[in-house]
Design goal:
Layout lengths: L28 H21 L16 H14 L6 H18 L2 H6 L14 H20 L3 H9 L1 H18 L19 H34 L9 E3 L10 H9 L4 E3 L6 H4 L7 H10 L2 H11 L1
Antiparallel strand pairs: 1-2
Protein name: Transcription factor domain-containing protein
Organism: Penicillium angulare
Length: 308
């Protein structure tokens, strides 16, 4: 793998469906409920700080599409809701979520999951795909896990769209972002790079945002189904960066410097290997969440105790 393009190579976008044993992973209801709490805290963190472990702080610095603006404002209202206005806010969330699907031709996409174009017949830009998925994730996390019966019913009806959009996003990224196509990659969503280092950083921001968003999106419905029915299928995993410091880097220079110390770029089902060479403080918030959802809790506890 080319050292400069370690996050762009074709094989890094492949979904792994490797079977995991009970020794590797033991996901119980407590673990899943804790993960839901983590997702809820992440979207609230986005409202208060402008970023979270799957929405990078630079991603919307140049372009802040309307669908994400609406989701952000709606989420802000939900975060600051009161008992007196909760029903009203949930009705707004339902309306905004339905609008998002309608504006993106989601009804057509449910009928034909292989449809790769919008209603105008043009291929959908990767950034547009990412932003609409961010907006939908916000509505889905609220709808599925708020506890309101009507909100849950609406969100359940949107699960198929969420899974289709996540699949399309990853497939589009796998086709357009590998290193052979860097010259033609459209990253207008980020500031124009003035150096090669900045170009690499911006490409990593976009690609890592896609990876993390996909992992979050495909985890929501299986967890909801598992809690509801007692079982669910695993959606698989892809590679992501879990080394602490890279996601929060304030500049290309800082990101590049952090990369030299190791990036912990690995498949989700290979994250158990982190316990052999890394300390808990070496792993960022996203990597920690993936560990908690993948590795046996007792192994993690021993690792954290021995490291402390």
């Amino acid at each position: 793998m080319n050292g400069a393009d370690w996050f762009l190579e074709s094989e890094t976008w492949r979904i792994s469906h490797r079977s995991v044993t009970s020794i590797d992973v033991a996901i119980n209801n407590t673990t899943m409920k804790n993960y839901i709490g983590v997702l809820q805290s992440w979207i609230e963190h986005w409202v208060t700080t402008g970023s979270n472990p799957f929405i990078h702080h630079r991603l919307y610095s140049e372009r802040f599409p309307a669908c994400v603006q609406v989701a952000y404002a709606t989420l802000s209202s939900y975060t600051h809701r009161t008992s007196a206005n909760t029903d009203t806010i949930l009705r707004i969330i339902e309306s905004r979520s339905n609008d998002l699907l309608q504006e993106n031709g989601a009804i057509l996409e449910i009928v034909d999951s292989e449809k790769w174009t919008d209603r105008g017949g043009q291929q959908i830009d990767i950034f547009v795909q990412l932003t609409r998925l961010h907006a939908l994730i916000v509505y889905q996390i609220i709808g599925l896990f708020d506890g309101d019966i009507r909100a849950r019913h609406v969100a359940e009806g949107h699960i198929a769209v969420q899974d289709i959009w996540a699949s399309k996003l990853l497939s589009s990224a796998a086709k357009s972002l590998p290193s052979a196509h860097i010259a033609t990659t459209n990253i207008d969503c980020l500031p124009k790079p003035s150096t090669y280092s900045q170009q690499q950083w911006h490409l990593w921001i976009l690609s890592e945002s896609i990876r993390r968003t996909w992992l979050v999106a495909v985890s929501i419905s299986p967890i909801f189904t598992a809690l509801q029915k007692g079982w669910s299928t695993c959606p698989g995993g892809i590679m992501y960066t879990s080394r602490s410091g890279l996601w929060d880097a304030a500049s290309a220079t800082q990101w590049e410097k952090q990369s030299l110390g190791g990036v912990a770029f690995l498949q989700r089902f290979d994250c158990t290997s982190l316990l052999d060479y890394a300390k808990p403080g070496d792993i960022d918030a996203f990597g920690t969440a993936m560990l908690d959802m993948t590795v046996n809790a007792e192994l993690l506890e021993r690792w954290r105790d021995s490291s402390s």
